[in-house]
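Field: COMPLEX_INPUT
Field: COMPONENT_COUNT = two
Field: RESIDUE_TOTAL = 914
Field: MODE = joint
Values follow.
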Amino acid sequence: MPPDKLPRSDVCSLSAVQDGQQLRVAGWIRSARISKNVIFVALSDGSTADTLQVVIVRNAGHWEELIPDLLTGASIEVIGALVATPSASQPFELAAQRLMVIGRAPATDYPLQKKEHSWEFLRNIAHLRLRSTTHGALMRLRSWLSGAIRHFFEQRNFIEIHTPIISSHDAEGAGALFEVRAPQRDAAHHHFFGAPAFLTVSGQLHAECAACALGRVYSFGPTFRAENSHTIRHLSEFWMVEPEMAWYTLDDNRRLAEELVANLAGQALEHQAKELHLLERHSAGLCAKIEGLTKLPYRVIEYSEAIKQLKQAQIAFEYPPRWGLDLQSEHEQWLVAHCSKGAPLFVVNYPQEIKPFYMRLNDDGITVAAMDLLLAEVGEIIGGSQREERLDYLLQRMQRDAMEQAAYQWYIELRKYGTVPHSGFGLGLDRLLLYLSGMHNVRDVVPFPRAPGQAVC
Amino acid sequence: MPPDKLPRSDVCSLSAVQDGQQLRVAGWIRSARISKNVIFVALSDGSTADTLQVVIVRNAGHWEELIPDLLTGASIEVIGALVATPSASQPFELAAQRLMVIGRAPATDYPLQKKEHSWEFLRNIAHLRLRSTTHGALMRLRSWLSGAIRHFFEQRNFIEIHTPIISSHDAEGAGALFEVRAPQRDAAHHHFFGAPAFLTVSGQLHAECAACALGRVYSFGPTFRAENSHTIRHLSEFWMVEPEMAWYTLDDNRRLAEELVANLAGQALEHQAKELHLLERHSAGLCAKIEGLTKLPYRVIEYSEAIKQLKQAQIAFEYPPRWGLDLQSEHEQWLVAHCSKGAPLFVVNYPQEIKPFYMRLNDDGITVAAMDLLLAEVGEIIGGSQREERLDYLLQRMQRDAMEQAAYQWYIELRKYGTVPHSGFGLGLDRLLLYLSGMHNVRDVVPFPRAPGQAVC
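Field: COMPLEX_OUTPUT
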């Protein structure tokens, strides 16, 4: 084949068995080392964490004019022959026959030089940081994880449901809602949708409509909180997968949740070894930590028991634990460390006062069928519940919470017509990825993070 | 196994080879027919378009008290034996041994009775319409189609990239942006993100950052337009898949687009036969129409040639065709009918004046490397282009369009550092589904449509 007609090969698809084969590759220079007789270029095309070593023998003069442009960040196309290198550290390299510099990257101002940059520095160049080794690996891992989550549900006959981003209700009662406004063309502004509209905090209530028609469904996409939190674990826009299942009790729900997490952890170790190995450089013991997620069943503790143990712990918590109050981060970490020795821990059956209106009241009349899954370091990654399917209980609870019934008429009607027991949960993709990648700040596992004061590009 | 411990079976998983097997199923009554000796209940659990016929023999008295509750919409659980029925219209039925009514649906007010309802009527009960046969089929088709799109890109080593919903720019220059506002706590309102924020109209510019680092990427999710359009083809919130590929020319881009559409159409015919067969009842010739998408290559016409042919057509178009103006819906439909005999048609190389700033200027200096894919009836389902990768051309164009450079510094830097030729397109999921389902209004192929005046639940 004439070199010009050669199709481009992805670096991830190359292998030493192609020894001697002519190839065309294209990507960005990670680094270039120019010595007297040979030039070595490490080329990354983003398809894998590995770079391809391109070797240029300086025997003929026509390479020389290229040398000033062979700089970190420049884009190049190379035609050459693959050479197996069984005795070298990498299995093969590319002996260049032709090299074209497509886009230069002036060394004087290209921000991503070969040295290690701080995460903070990289966060301010979100448009370029995906070209760094670690952020490239994080994005491939994120993409793989999103696919693995969907395959898990596809294999179990769940139907993917596209719950709306623009929403008229506040599923969590949290109050931290972004408002959505259409351009104001008239002096008297009318609501574009006929009523105030917000960015969704959860697809759950809509997923409930779908589960009460289609059986098992899930939504997977961005959700929003307008909280002014400047922490390493909060984002204004974050991804959640939210399965919702007709006929599932809280126990069924919990078993599905732990099966999901264990499955993803096991698959990550199997299919993402290269990315995890690379990330382990920043996070010692990463793979062992992930291995810990694969051991089923996870431990379960009742909220009331958890409070009892926290009180007995005789620790000077910043927030003293008390029945009827929510668990704080310091409590969660203590529980995970002491009740499950660092392994995942479910806390179930919380006081109804601290949980939203839609959770099913237990027979004790004071707790609801809620579950949270806690992990070491990242804290809560799953929150779920059995939903209140009994019309009279739901209406009582809404009345107690002084909710406006008219706005939730559609939700109430799910209980009025052919109601069924059902359950669901939300798993935070970003926090799970934080755990699986060993990164410390959730803003580093999202390509373009949105947080208070931060929407750089 | 004791009946109480039987796991629930999905109706979609049942088959006549289970003849004689004891089963437990749960779902909603589609219809019930009560005769002197036998009761027939058509049960739907949402896992398939098929209902399961449950047969109750009225020989023993204990069924009688259930009869008043065996109404359309009620939820029930049934334990019984599967009976193969080779001579009947359905391959098997369930001989009930036990039946429990879980949630009633009073015939006096349950809105979804057995009779056919208008699409308009159903649109106003979005929370219940997913229980209808057609809307159930549409949601399963939508879920399958979304998965098929992702599998297409996964198989080709594309990386899924989660481009943000909250955005600071207007990729299309369309101006029809929803604004995002945080709750105003202070009299002096500060921008939550440090600058005005909007709902994204396209993930493209962010996907370009990712493609210029990772090679081939795609985003897939909701996008927004604040246009006050009350048509059967427009939504305020709609789903787009947006692939973006480094090193792709417009021709590469076009070939990927047609391969995607043909692949999805072919797979739909193969894997979604049951749903399509059902939908064909409302749309004669549906499968033949879909078959038409599988024939490659699609026809391609230059914009200039299209205008010439429209002028020669001697038709009294509402909007007279003229070089330099955008194609109207009436023009698109004429072109599809006459230039490709109803088959898909690409129109390429539009005047730069009517296309956004990021499209690559062709060598003629007056057109840009744009492409639109037109289908009969639904019109444009794909819009794409080769992106302007040359820094000087991009800056000139931005200046001409009086764009604020500072706000796009990050986008400009993609051209400043290691720029590469790249291309991409956006495929509208909802319009493709409209075509594949034979439905007429895009509000009927989205579970909870958002349109001016419509955000019902």
